[in-house]
Design a protein that fits this description.
Length: about 290
């Protein structure tokens, strides 16, 4: 039986070459005002027999698959026993499996104990993609993220203590032109406390279908920052980061005006120099027609 996906299907850029299995459909929260990814879907925990059927169909075509991403928006919302059943089926069906990953929301992580996370990691679910977006409580409220800086710090520490790796994302521009400094400074404060393994920045893009909702929930006029303002945000962000453990940093997502790559804090000066070159017009930016989500 061929493997069919319930579209639309999203995955992190780094999972592009890996096997994707839909353990859930949609997003259990689905209220973030900046995100249009799962607005056309209702959240559903897929029955195990359907998920197992997809695993077997995928294995027939790709028996040597080593890495699996569990879609859709937050497979970690599933009960731990349900997730363990999926992980066990993957391990039995894909003998070369080395890693399973999925998206994780602050609420999903809060509802899992450290013991549950350790158990999941021992069954190869070892990488969680976590959307920080902003560390500012003001911005988190304006984008209806449903969490706070304190709560995110708590769940990121919990994930770290369980041995999970976290790939975190921050969205440049979320504070608009009015609250840029507060957005960045709150995010710096969070990341200088809570340990993550990977860190990426994206540049804010608002789909036409949610633009009116975003503006309404923001609660005041929102002006999209231009590329120079975004580069200045990135400069302020990187300059202020002193993470509790080394972080692999990237801004190579297609939404970004400038692609950066390095390790923090080791490469901070190099990254800041590249940003200064871009702001001076000495380093080209990605053309707008080549940007996207």
């Amino acid at each position: 039986m061929p493997l069919h996906y319930d579209m639309p299907l999203f995955r992190p850029p780094s999972e592009g070459d890996n096997l994707i299995i839909q353990a859930t459909l949609g997003c259990s929260f689905n209220q973030c005002s900046f995100c249009a990814m799962y607005r056309t879907k209702e959240y559903l925990a897929r029955p195990l027999d359907e998920v197992f059927g997809d695993i077997h169909a995928a294995a027939a075509d790709w028996p040597d698959a080593q890495r699996v991403f569990l879609a859709d928006g937050d497979a970690l919302a599933l009960p731990t026993e349900h997730l363990l059943a999926i992980l066990n089926e993957l391990a039995v069906t894909l003998p070369r499996l080395t890693r399973v990953s999925c998206y994780a929301t602050p609420g999903n992580l809060a509802r899992k104990s450290i013991e549950e996370l350790v158990q999941l990691r021992e069954h190869k679910l070892s990488l969680l993609y976590f959307g920080i977006e902003s560390g500012s409580d003001l911005i988190l409220k304006k984008i209806t993220k449903g969490t706070t800086q304190k709560r995110m710090a708590e769940v990121l520490h919990k994930a770290h203590d369980s041995g999970m790796k976290i790939s975190a994302t921050v969205i440049l521009g979320l504070g608009g032109t009015t609250h840029s400094d507060e957005h960045i400074d709150g995010t710096i404060a969070l990341l200088n406390d809570a340990p993550v393994t990977y860190l990426s920045t994206l540049q804010l893009y608002l789909d036409d279908s949610i633009l009116e909702e975003f503006q309404h929930k923001f609660g005041e006029p929102f002006e999209m920052p231009n590329d120079l303002a975004i580069l200045k945000e990135q400069e302020r962000f990187i300059a202020g980061l002193n993470p509790p453990q080394p972080v692999i940093f990237r801004s190579n997502h297609a939404s970004n005006a400038l692609a950066l790559a390095g390790n923090l804090p080791r490469d901070k000066d190099k990254l800041l120099a590249q940003l200064q070159q871009a702001m001076a017009g000495e380093r080209p930016l990605r053309p707008i027609f080549m940007r996207g989500l």
